[in-house]
Automatic annotation (TrEMBL):
The gene is nanE. This is Putative N-acetylmannosamine-6-phosphate 2-epimerase. It is an enzyme of class 5 (isomerase). Belongs to the NanE family. It comes from Microbacterium panaciterrae. Pfam families: NanE.
């Protein structure tokens, strides 16, 4: 298949998710832009970023395909939950807009298909659907998503939450859909990243294990203290 340039550039490579949790010292656009610049030096082929300020500054600083999202609200659907959020993410500079691609009800009452259709009509944006199951992924592709991620595997009722990535789901979705599949979620080691590619993933998204010092430190501290 012929893919748009921002997606084609991700083939077989590593996308680094540069995000910090609310209240953390690293929660600032400047810091996340620096993290993204470091990821570029290390060989990342793309960046995933959250929040309009982070997206805009990373777009200015880093010449890589940029997957953007906007976490908002406290409902189950909080990853770019509405059409308005999606339009804002694109306007901030994202090449690909990531949004909740599950079959759950969206806060603005629009279906996933209607959200994607209106977003594409208004902006021409590419869409990544963050999914939690094979049925989610199939429905998201039918709704018009340009690629799907396994981002929400284990975070909905469809699949158990594993300690590591859901390799089985990555394989199932990769075999079933005709769009790129981005393996994402609890990929903590290079070996797991390679396993995801071997299972059929188009590319791999890694966040915590690269960009979240508090989590990485806790892993080592736990191992040291026993």
């Amino acid at each position: 298949m012929t893919l748009p340039a921002p997606l084609a550039a991700l083939a077989g490579g590593l996308v680094v998710s540069c995000q910090a949790y609310p209240g953390e010292p690293m929660r600032s656009p400047e810091t996340m832009a620096q993290v993204a610049q470091s990821a570029l030096i290390g060989g990342a082929v793309g960046i995933r970023a959250q929040g309009l300020g982070d997206i805009a500054l990373i777009r200015e600083r880093v010449d890589l395909p940029l997957i953007g999202l906007w976490k908002a609200g406290d409902a189950d659907v909080f990853i770019t939950p509405t059409l308005s959020h999606a339009i804002g993410v694109h306007a901030a500079g994202a090449d690909i807009v990531a949004l909740d691609g599950t079959r759950r009800e969206r806060p603005d009452g629009l279906s996933l298909a209607e959200t994607i259709r209106r977003l594409k009509d208004r902006t021409g944006a590419l869409v990544m659907a963050d999914t939690g199951s094979l049925d989610d992924a199939l429905a998201a592709v039918e709704a018009g998503a340009d690629c799907v991620g396994t981002t929400l595997a284990g975070y909905t009722s469809d699949r158990p939450k594993l300690a590591g990535p859901d390799i089985e789901l990555i394989g199932l979705i990769s075999a079933a859909v005709g769009v790129p599949v981005l393996a994402e979620g609890r990929i903590h080691t290079p070996a797991q990243a390679a396993e995801a590619i071997a299972a059929g993933a188009f590319s791999v998204v890694v966040g915590t294990a690269i960009t979240h010092p508090a989590s990485i430190t806790s892993w080592f501290a736990t191992a040291v203290h026993g």
